[in-house]
Amino acid sequence: MTVRVMLISPAMNAALREARFDGDSPLDRSGRESARAAAGAVPATGLVLSGPSGRCRETAEALGLAARTEPALGGWDLAGWAGRRLDEVAAAEPAEVAAWLGDPSAAPHGGESLRDLVTRTGAWLDSLGGPDAPGASFLAVAEAAVVRAAVVHGLRLPAEAFWRLDVAPLTLTQLSGRSGRWNVGLGRPLTAPPAE
Question: Gene3D superfamilies attached here (predicted)?
Answer without folding.
Answer: Phosphoglycerate mutase-like (3.40.50.1240)
